[in-house]
Amino acid sequence: MPQQDDNLYEADIRSVNLRKLCGGGITNTMESCVAAGIHPDNPDAIVIGDSKLGADSPRLVFSRGELANFVDEFTNGKI
Fold it and tell me: What is the 3-state secondary structure (H, E, C) of 47-76?
């Protein structure tokens, strides 16, 4: 069973290998890219950064449940 950390920001996430994911942009400047990777201490958490900023990007951490809630809210026009 995956480890469930109450504070996903306690781990050192600076070395997480983020993969660039793109799509949905209105131009070909790649402005709609995001970088994402798996949290080192919790495989059910995702680390997200801005692909344009590379290693200098601030990183956000979300559980898969939090991201699923976000997608649901977006899909249903609530945000």
Answer: EEECHHHHHHCCCEEEEHHHHHHHHHHHHC
Q: Domain limits at 56?
A: 19-75
Summarize pLDDT for 14-70 with one digit per residue, the tens: 888 899 888 766 666 656 788 999 998 899 999 999 888 888 889 999 999 999 999
- The residues, ordered by sequence, that sit 6+ positions from 64 with a Cβ below 8 Å of its Cβ are 44, 45, 46
Sign of CA dihedral 71, 77, 78, 79: positive
Whose CA is closest to 36, among 9, 13, 7? 13
Whether 14 is covered by a domain: the verdict is: no
**Predicted pLDDT at 1:** 36
